[in-house]
Amino acid sequence: QVQLVESGGGSVQPGGSLRLSCAASTSIRSTYAMGWVRQGPGKQRELVAVIGRDGTTQYADSVKGRFTISRDIAKKTVYLEMNSLKPEDTAVYYCRDFQGDYWGQGTQVTVSS
Predict the structure, then answer these.
(1) Residue 44 burial by CB count (10 A; 0-12/13-18/19+): exposed, middle or buried?
(2) What are phi and psi of 70, to 5 degrees?
(3) Contact at 8 Å (CB) between 59 and 69?
(4) Segment 14-56, tens digit of pLDDT
(5) Cα distance between residue 20 and residue 17, in whole Å
(6) What are the angstrom distances between the C-alpha of 47 and each of 26, 93, 108, 109?
(7) Residue 96 C-alpha from the chain's centroid
(8) Helices in the chain by DSSP H: which ranges?
(9) Rg of the chain over CA atoms, in angstroms?
(10) Residue 19 near residue 82, CB atoms below 8 Å
(11) DSSP of 18-40, one letter per residue?
(12) pLDDT per residue over 52-90, tens digit each?
């Protein structure tokens, strides 16, 4: 069983930045892929960003050029750097381990003036 704990959410104004962290309870070195999924109010879940075992990354079109996913294998942590935030980025952001289909508890991000 893998536990994922997100942190770093909060409230920011449009144009602001946040960095989310996802700390795993076990090594992420050989995990097939890890990523971030978000669910906004009244919206379906959306896959935001993924990082593969080899470090390759993929992003939803809605966040390309603004969000960056990265990882620190030694710290067993995956990050999501979010810049130029927009009100439509408001959502609960979940960390996901795709290999075992593990999910974190989620962290709220609110973008509002």
Answers:
(1) exposed
(2) -150, 175
(3) yes
(4) 999 999 999 999 888 888 899 999 999 999 999 999 999 999 9
(5) 10
(6) 23, 10, 16, 15
(7) 8
(8) none
(9) 13
(10) yes
(11) EEEEEEESS--TT-SEEEEEEE-
(12) 999 999 999 999 999 999 999 999 999 999 999 999 999
> Which two structure tokens, joined as six digits, stand for 25?
């309870």
C-beta of residue 77 within 8 angstroms of C-beta of residue 27:
no
Distances 56 to 12, 59, 102 between C-alpha atoms, Å: 29, 11, 20
Q: Which residue has the tokens 């990523």?
A: 35
Token reading at 78? 């995956």
- Tokens 């999501």 correspond to 80
Q: How far is CA 16 from CA 5, 28, 87, in A?
A: 23, 29, 10
